[in-house]
Design brief:
The protein is α/β, with parallel strands linked by helices. The chain is built from twelve helices and seven strands. Helix 6 packs across helix 8.
């Protein structure tokens, strides 16, 4: 790990110099560069990050709980408490190897809970989610010279709302509503994200994530082109940080790095 290129910030680079990494991020050699971006915990910050861990489904539930008909609220809250406790036990405190199966259970359970709600209400909630993004995330991505792709274990309406807000037209996430794309299959973890990444053609890749779920995108990108850059955000995963070229505590650090070089 190199010395901090910006001594007043918690940002580190590995394997390559800061200047070389910025040249790739900015795509100064003008290759066909693809961005593979995680959503939860990377772009999405949420209402209460220390408690809800920037999980967009949790924030979607909080928004909906204040807008659904009163008659549906008790059952919805009961489902929400169950999901929260399950996530705490099996995702936050559970085994990493079992993570995809637990994510599958959470996604399917929350999908059933939402099935009784009007689609318009869910769309309105999804459209609100980009307001909960991390500060400086869009500004930093605008400086990165890549055609973006959002690859998320969350639901498509939320991921596509982020895509519209960030100007990223290609979105891969779990279908929820009737017209959501289903051709790429469900996404529950690193293996599924790797499967999606293999289908995205490019000469080089910029991968941005925050957990072990994003290792699949990162390692796939590096196999395709060893010059691809992996950015680990927010200090949540030592495994991802070990493989990353850039380790950043926040988007403001990435924005400053791009400006400094």
């Amino acid at each position: 790990m190199s010395a901090q290129p910006l001594v007043h910030r918690k940002l580190f680079t590995q394997r390559r110099s800061p200047r070389d990494l910025v040249a790739i991020l900015r795509n100064e050699d003008h290759v066909d560069q693809q961005g593979l971006y995680d959503l939860d915990g990377s772009l999405h910050r949420g209402f209460y990050p220390p408690w809800l861990k920037a999980i967009s489904n949790a924030d979607l539930a909080i928004y909906l709980a204040s807008h659904i008909p009163l008659s549906q609220l008790p059952r919805f809250l009961c489902d929400g408490v169950h999901i929260f406790l399950y996530e705490k036990k099996n995702i936050q405190d559970g085994k990493e190897s079992e993570r995809p199966e637990h994510i599958r259970y959470l996604v399917e359970t929350f999908r059933r809970s939402l099935s009784a709600l009007p689609e318009e209400l869910i769309r309105n909630a999804a459209d609100f989610m980009p307001k909960l993004r991390y500060p400086h995330a869009k500004e930093a991505l605008d400086k990165i010279g890549a055609r973006g792709n959002i690859i998320s274990c969350g639901f498509y309406p939320v991921a596509s709302a982020y895509g519209r807000a960030f100007g990223i037209p290609r979105v891969y996430a779990n279908p929820l509503l009737g017209f959501d794309p289903k051709q790429h299959g469900e996404i529950y973890g690193a293996v599924d994200k790797a499967r999606i990444a293999r289908k995205i053609n490019g000469e080089r890749y910029i991968v941005i994530g925050d957990t072990a779920d994003d290792m699949g995108m990162g390692l796939t990108a590096r196999v395709k082109n060893p010059e691809s850059v992996i950015i680990a955000l927010h200090g949540r995963c030592t495994y991802l940080a070990a493989e990353a070229d850039i380790i950043a505590s926040c988007w403001e650090d990435i924005h400053a790095l791009l400006d400094a070089y």
